[in-house]
Write a structure and sequence with these properties.
The chain is α+β, with helices and mostly antiparallel strands. It has 8 helices and 6 strands.
């Protein structure tokens, strides 16, 4: 349950210790996930699973219609990366929520590599598609309590409060896998370098955590002409 609910799962009494999930599908499309939680270990049986699957088949079309209605009322976003909060807004968040940084906090750093190669081979529009793809993949795997920020032109930060290294690393691995196996058409060489840092081991301030996450990133050997962006101004 912690992977879905974050640290809130630890603070609920009684604490949820089991989860049963089934996909909500309409034809070949996944429209959601139906999850049940229990405070007991191994609380769900095969009978529970069968009942949940029956309910899911009835609920899925309703969820799909609700999603379609919601999307029809919102203008399409060409580049979701452009709508992310900025480093300056991260600064404001840290100042206004300083009490949150007292516990364990994790930072995941994501940077798109081979950016110049994509631009040379495919053009500027495909770069936007690649960045949008990374944002979409990250948003799919982070929790509601996590915040995705735009760090600079082709890199991003996920800030996770009350999160340890193991959980943050699991999130990072999921994002990387999704980015690399689901690259959009025309940008099949999209790759990301990622680093994870946690407090207090890697630093107490957000600046220190960002710097540590960049250092811990598994920077690949880049072909000539590829680049990684230089860090912008720090967060205080």
């Amino acid at each position: 349950p912690v992977l879905d609910l974050g640290e809130a799962a630890r603070s609920v009494s009684p604490r949820p210790r089991s989860c049963l999930s089934t996909p909500l599908t309409v034809g070949p499309s996944l429209v959601g996930v139906f999850s049940l939680y229990s405070s007991g270990y191994e609380a769900f049986s095969e009978d529970h699973q069968r009942v949940l699957e029956v309910i899911a088949r009835q609920v899925a079309p309703v969820v799909q219609q609700a999603l379609a209605f919601g999307q029809s009322r919102q203008p399409p976003v060409r580049n979701p990366a452009a709508s992310l909060p900025s480093l300056k807004q991260l600064n404001v968040l840290v100042r206004s929520h300083s009490h949150l940084t007292g516990g364990a906090m994790a930072v995941i750093y994501l940077a798109v590599v081979r950016k110049k190669r994509i631009q040379t081979q495919h053009g500027g529009e495909e770069i936007d598609d690649a960045l949008s793809h990374v944002v979409t993949c990250a948003q799919r795997h982070i929790r509601p309590t996590d915040i995705l920020f735009r760090y600079d032109g082709s890199s991003f930060l996920v800030v996770q409060f009350q999160t340890d290294r193991k959980l943050a690393s699991t999130m990072a691995d999921r994002i990387r896998h999704t980015v690399e196996v689901e690259s959009p058409s025309g940008t099949d060489d999209v790759r990301v370098t990622m680093g994870v840092s946690v407090s207090p081991e890697d630093g107490q301030s957000v600046d220190a955590l960002i710097a540590a996450a960049r250092r811990k990133g598994e920077f690949p050997s880049l072909p000539s002409g590829d680049d990684l962006n230089q860090p912008p101004e720090s967060v205080h």
